[in-house]
Amino acid sequence: MISDEEREALARLYLASRRNARSAYLAAQMAYLAASPLADSCEPRTMWEPAKVRFVLDMVLRTESVPGNILELGVFQGGGTFLMARMLKAISSGRVIVGVDSFEGMPEPVDQDADDSGVARFHEGMFREGSSYQYTSLLARVLHLEDRVRFIKGYFADVLPSLAREGRRYSLAIVDPDQYAGTMQALETFYDLMSPGGVVIVDDYGCASSMGVQRAVDEFLAGRPERLEVGALSMVWFRKL
Ligand SMILES: C[S@@+](CC[C@H](N)C(=O)[O-])C[C@H]1O[C@@H](n2cnc3c(N)ncnc32)[C@H](O)[C@@H]1O
């Protein structure tokens, strides 16, 4: 376990290393280390593998100079949210994370979620088990991160339009609902609110268990100027032009 001072020193080193354009891998390692005490304690609460955690934390730091807050669409138990929030604290960032989830699991899949054998592997209610708005909000207070995170409970179709009407800009959006409709709603709602230079990460692209994600991303980006890049494992991303 490293101390708060050591973690902050690592975060400063990280920022210096990025300014000097040193190895992105080393920088990502430092970003991960800077949040590692929480990574250890939160491991069961994020579904992201360590490579994805490192990639997301690196993107949190790389978008620090882009105007706007951070969005996480599909938070489950909030482990990824808290890791990002801890990182924001370590670098004294002014950004906050808005995390949206039904906290009731997934809605019904649609036709586009079917795999090659015609079956949608993620059914309605998946992820309901172990998901709780009250518990995750309480955890934010226990971890002293309540000033860094704002959780919104509801299905995307119901809550994203009013969130978008707030008119706030975003520097980083992580889209992680694992289904076609949720992915498309997220991209369509927030594309225009992403600051130029902001980053959109989508998880589970190309996974056999969530074919709808790739279909939504490919349809959405067709005819738009942004180029999709591979991030870590099944995480892909693009930079808003
Ligand atoms: C793969 S989990 C998210 C994992 C999380 N990002 C992490 O770091 O562990 C997917 C989450 O998306 C939520 N979800 C999926 N579709 C949704 C929708 N249309 N509206 C609201 N929440 C949704 C589910 O409830 C579930 O908690």
UniProtKB/TrEMBL annotation:
Pfam families: TylF. Keywords: Methyltransferase, Transferase. Its EC number is 2.1.1.101. Coiled coil: none annotated. One of its GO terms (biological process) is methylation. GO terms for molecular function: macrocin O-methyltransferase activity. PANTHER family: MACROCIN O-METHYLTRANSFERASE. This is Macrocin O-methyltransferase. It comes from Fundidesulfovibrio magnetotacticus.
